[in-house]
Write a structure and sequence with these properties.
The complex is a heterodimer of chains A (109) and B (114).
Chain A lengths: L2 E3 L3 E5 L4 E8 L6 E6 L6 E6 L3 E5 L2 E6 L4 E6 L8 E8 L5 E3 L3 E6 L1
Parallel strand pairs in A: 2-11
Antiparallel strand pairs in A: 1-3, 3-8, 4-5, 4-9, 6-7, 7-8, 9-10, 9-11
Chain B lengths: L3 E4 L2 E4 L5 E7 L5 E7 L6 E6 L6 E2 L6 E3 L9 E3 L8 E8 L9 E2 L3 E5 L1
Parallel strand pairs in B: 2-11
Antiparallel strand pairs in B: 1-3, 3-8, 4-5, 4-9, 5-6, 7-8, 9-10, 9-11
Classes of the chains: A mainly beta (109), B mainly beta (114).
């Protein structure tokens, strides 16, 4: 079957760094997305990785290892506004997205 | 530019009633999607459309139907609502079939079926 695993909840301190992990098992693979979703709002796109390695975009970076079926989202210099859920989604052989349940990130002052 | 709009924002519905959730995008995207989001579960695809005039079934299509008469609109209909359809429904669109394209989401419709 197809499956995405990510931690349910994480807590971090303002100004610190946090890494949110995601493992995936899909029939075929066409890339890995990360989305941010604030409570009561729609998901918004953060990053897309299809090749192995790290992609940096400001305070946010995303890493992919296709051989390990593993990705992580790295958030640096955490701000209170980063409190949100972070959704991992893998594109399968049919180009449909398989979504994880999301990781709720709580930032404490 | 509005992006994607959904209506209504929220609705309380009696079981057995028919309901249509509306979705309109102004980005001229070819692909559109309907998802439901339930606590503790990931977004689950209900139906999708790769282009106007075509639709397909997602992971959880039972009890739902869609149509795509034109590029902009993608309504989702619950023919006879049941309490298990209580959920938050998101419409999304992407430039082409979304496997490698960014999906843009509407604000969602919170539906309660009693």
């Amino acid at each position: 079957g197809q499956n995405i695993d990510q931690p349910t909840e994480m807590t971090a301190t303002e100004g610190a760094i946090v890494q949110i992990n995601c493992t995936y098992q899909t029939s075929g693979f066409n890339g890995l997305f990360w989305y941010q979703q604030h409570a009561g709002e729609a998901p918004t796109f953060l990053s897309y990785n299809v090749l192995d390695g790290l992609e940096e975009k400001g305070r946010f970076s995303s890493f992919l290892s296709r051989s390990k079926g593993y990705s992580y989202l790295l958030l640096k210099e955490l701000q209170m506004k980063d409190s949100a859920s972070y959704l991992c989604a893998a594109s399968d052989s049919n180009y449909q997205l398989i979504w994880g349940a999301g990781t709720k990130l709580i930032i404490k002052p | 530019i509005a992006g994607i709009t959904q209506a209504p924002t929220s609705q309380i519905l009696a079981a057995g009633r028919r309901m249509t959730l509306r979705c309109t995008q102004d980005m001229r995207h070819n692909a559109m999607y309907w998802y439901r989001q339930d606590l503790g579960l990931g977004l689950r695809l209900i139906h999708y459309s790769n282009t106007a005039g075509t639709t397909g079934k997602g992971e959880v299509p039972d009890g739902y139907s869609v149509s795509r008469a034109n590029t902009d609109d993608f309504p989702l209909t619950l023919a006879s609502a049941v309490p298990s359809q209580t959920s938050v429904y998101f419409c999304a669109s992407s430039e082409s079939t979304g496997g490698t394209d960014t999906q843009y989401f509407g604000p969602g419709t919170r539906l309660t079926v009693l």
